[in-house]
């Protein structure tokens, strides 16, 4: 039996073929990105572009789908690609072991993609990628802050201009306004107030913890937006 049988029963052969023909970039394959990547892979996306310059660390084990005790130290993009190929051996994957925003030309890695999932933590790199995609007309969805939260019911998709309660979204809005961008970016965000139990990170900011499921919820929201957008699925289709 076709491994995509249950997907085809839901969306039909034509939309399943659309997903097989699609090329989607996931930038950052940590807690949010690895969940988005896996949902895209299991939905039948035929071509993934995976971009991340980090290695699997012990602290990743509590939330990142690609992380296991056996692959600590492995480069994340290769761990991510291995996981996708175990799900769908026929998938096409471009692997880029780098952090976007470190050179003038690295954003070209997402050119010619049908969609981009932004799961980057670094604000300057995030702004750089978002600006590039909006300027080039590349469809995308961007993840805001998932750390410090525990309530999945507060997670939502919205235009960046309609976000609230998320400090990262507030920062991104301000940075984009400096570039003359006020709306037109779909994001996953949480309106739940982030909680920190204290301590500082390596940059002197508040150190927020994360729980196993919340980044994955963000990743599922992002993947759902990509899949529904590519397939042209609307609420009207379900009535």
From TrEMBL:
Pfam families: ThiF
One of the GO BP terms on file: cyclic threonylcarbamoyladenosine biosynthetic process
InterPro entries: ThiF/MoeB/HesA (IPR045886), ThiF_NAD_FAD-bd (IPR000594), Ubiquitin-activating_enz (IPR035985)
Example of a GO MF term: tRNA threonylcarbamoyladenosine dehydratase
Superkingdom per UniProt: Bacteria
THIF-type NAD/FAD binding fold domain mapped to chain residues: 6-236
Protein name: tRNA threonylcarbamoyladenosine dehydratase
Organism the protein comes from: Candidatus Enterocola intestinipullorum
């Amino acid at each position: 039996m076709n491994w995509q049988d249950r997907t085809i029963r839901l969306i039909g052969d034509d939309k399943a073929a659309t997903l097989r023909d699609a090329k989607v970039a996931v930038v950052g394959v940590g807690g949010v990105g690895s969940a988005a990547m896996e949902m895209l892979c299991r939905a039948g996306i035929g071509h993934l572009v995976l971009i991340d310059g980090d290695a699997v660390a012990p602290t990743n084990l509590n939330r990142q789908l690609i992380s296991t005790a056996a692959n600590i130290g492995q480069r994340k993009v290769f761990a991510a690609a291995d996981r996708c190929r175990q799900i769908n051996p026929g998938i096409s994957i471009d692997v880029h072991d780098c952090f976007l925003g470190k050179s003038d030309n690295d954003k070209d890695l997402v050119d010619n993609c049908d969609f981009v999932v932004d799961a980057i933590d670094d604000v300057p790199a995030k702004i750089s990628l978002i600006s590039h995609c909006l300027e080039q007309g590349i469809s995308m969805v961007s993840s805001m802050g998932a750390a410090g939260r525990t309530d999945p019911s507060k997670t939502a998709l919205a235009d960046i201009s309609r976000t609230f309660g998320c400090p990262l979204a507030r920062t991104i809005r301000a940075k984009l306004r400096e570039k003359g961008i006020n709306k037109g970016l779909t994001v996953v965000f949480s309106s739940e107030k982030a909680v920190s139990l204290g301590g500082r990170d390596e940059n002197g900011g508040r150190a927020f913890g994360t729980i196993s499921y919340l980044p994955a919820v963000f990743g599922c929201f992002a993947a759902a937006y990509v899949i529904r957008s590519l397939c042209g699925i609307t609420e009207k289709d379900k009535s």
